[in-house]
């Protein structure tokens, strides 16, 4: 039998058995569609989570020091933290911890009204040191950030977040204009590049930066910090730096052995590693579910093909009687399984792409389709046909033609 005639024979057989063919395709389609959707959404979620944490934390080569014990949770401000991190503590950490490249000081409040003419809002107010942009990797889109001279002179200058700028200055330039933070006038020096949302979904652009000294002495009247951010010379030395910082602060705060720290130190890189590990575990579980669904599709192929072998015993007997070899029978049934599995895989990929787009829009995730995932799904569908089609094809090839014709 030549290849063309052989191919036509396979196609005719599949057309004559539409229901069986559709059942075989459906099993693979469901499995491949599930695999495509779950792997794509899992990777998209991982990347979006990384992006959100990067937006919030800036860089991952830092250590964050907050006042109070490690049991404290939630967004901190000057109204809800212990006054345990002082300016002298920041100086000591910056000068005595060898693993540190630089340190940024932070005071912030969440309940101060900001006004410009008849417009007002309540953005988060951050008093920070002049190295904030360098340490965080943030940028200004208009104007410029304040300098170390501004910090030393307690300058009343403000850098607006993108959302705050739109709220106070929806239709005019903000640079050089005077706003009032509480009752204190500030001149707008610059506008930050939009950062989007954080991991909790809140805006990271509804804020104002002012010099930390100005915040401490002219606005908040507080001599303690809500946060210190330390940039490391070597990110791999995060744990060593934490141990040195803890020892230094415990000594400075005269904490007796066995007592709790009145501060807590966290490593964003370690936190991100934990989040990544959790995400990886979830993706593996989703992958297992998808593989199980695909495996069920393969079992459907084998079951339906075995039924087909039983129903086509007479056809097999006739073909063997007129000279068809066992190999020809085996190849025919195997190719039928592979072709149907491949077709089901293609349909599954198409459905998977559509499903991924739908879920991405529903969950507000970026649409992500990896070419290698499509290639793997295609190869998997072919592999399913081969793997689960071998046994039924072997059963067909080893059928005794005399018994088949007699039946």
UniProtKB/TrEMBL annotation:
Residue ranges annotated for the MacB-like periplasmic core domain, each copy included: 22-247
The keyword Cell membrane belongs to this UniProt entry's keyword annotation: yes
Main localization (coarse): membrane
Bilayer topology: Multi-pass membrane protein
Domain ABC3 transporter permease C-terminal, chain residue ranges per copy: 288-401
Molecular functions (GO terms): transmembrane transporter activity
Compartment list: Cell membrane
GO CC annotation: plasma membrane
Transmembrane intervals: 21-41, 285-309, 329-353, 373-394
Protein origin, superkingdom: Bacteria
Record's keyword terms, sorted: Cell membrane, Membrane, Transmembrane, Transmembrane helix
Family stated for the protein in its record: Belongs to the ABC-4 integral membrane protein family.
Protein name according to UniProt: ABC transporter permease
Source organism of the structure: Tunturiibacter gelidiferens
């Amino acid at each position: 039998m030549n290849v063309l005639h052989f191919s036509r024979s396979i196609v005719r057989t599949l057309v004559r058995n539409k229901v069986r063919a559709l059942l075989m395709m459906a099993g693979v389609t469901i499995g491949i569609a599930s695999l495509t959707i779950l792997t794509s959404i899992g990777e998209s979620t991982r990347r979006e989570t990384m992006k959100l944490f990067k937006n919030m934390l800036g860089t991952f080569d830092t250590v964050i020091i907050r006042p109070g014990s490690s049991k404290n949770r939630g967004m901190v401000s000057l109204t809800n933290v212990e006054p345990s991190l002082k300016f002298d503590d920041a100086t000591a950490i910056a000068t005595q911890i060898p693993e540190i490249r630089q340190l940024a000081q932070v005071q912030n409040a969440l309940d101060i009204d900001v006004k410009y003419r008849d417009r007002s809002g309540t953005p988060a107010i951050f008093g920070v040191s002049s190295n904030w942009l360098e340490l965080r990797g943030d940028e200004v889109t208009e104007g410029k950030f304040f300098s170390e001279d501004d910090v030393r002179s307690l300058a009343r200058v403000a850098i607006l977040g993108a959302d705050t700028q739109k709220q106070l200055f929806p239709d005019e330039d903000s640079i050089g204009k005077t706003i009032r933070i509480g009752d204190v006038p500030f001149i707008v020096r610059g506008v930050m590049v939009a950062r989007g949302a954080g991991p909790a979904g809140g805006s990271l652009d509804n804020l104002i930066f002012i010099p930390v000294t100005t915040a401490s002495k002219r606005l908040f009247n507080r001599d303690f910090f809500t946060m210190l951010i330390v940039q490391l010379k070597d990110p791999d030395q995060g744990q060593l730096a934490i141990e040195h910082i803890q020892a230094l602060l415990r000594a400075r705060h005269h904490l007796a052995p066995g007592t709790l720290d009145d501060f807590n130190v966290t490593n964003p890189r370690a936190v991100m590693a934990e989040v990544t590990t959790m995400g990886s575990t979830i993706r593996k579980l989703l992958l297992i579910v998808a593989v199980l669904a695909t495996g069920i599709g393969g079992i459907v192929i084998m079951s339906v093909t075995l039924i087909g072998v039983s129903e086509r015993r007479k056809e097999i007997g006739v073909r063997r009687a007129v000279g068809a070899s066992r190999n020809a029978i085996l190849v025919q049934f195997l190719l039928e399984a592979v072709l149907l599995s491949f077709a089901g895989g293609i349909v599954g990929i198409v459905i998977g792409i559509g499903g991924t787009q739908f879920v991405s829009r529903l969950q507000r995730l970026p649409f992500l389709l990896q070419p290698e995932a499509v290639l793997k799904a295609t190869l998997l569908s072919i592999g399913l046909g081969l793997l689960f089609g071998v046994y039924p094809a072997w059963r067909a090839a080893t059928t005794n033609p005399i018994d088949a014709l007699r039946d």
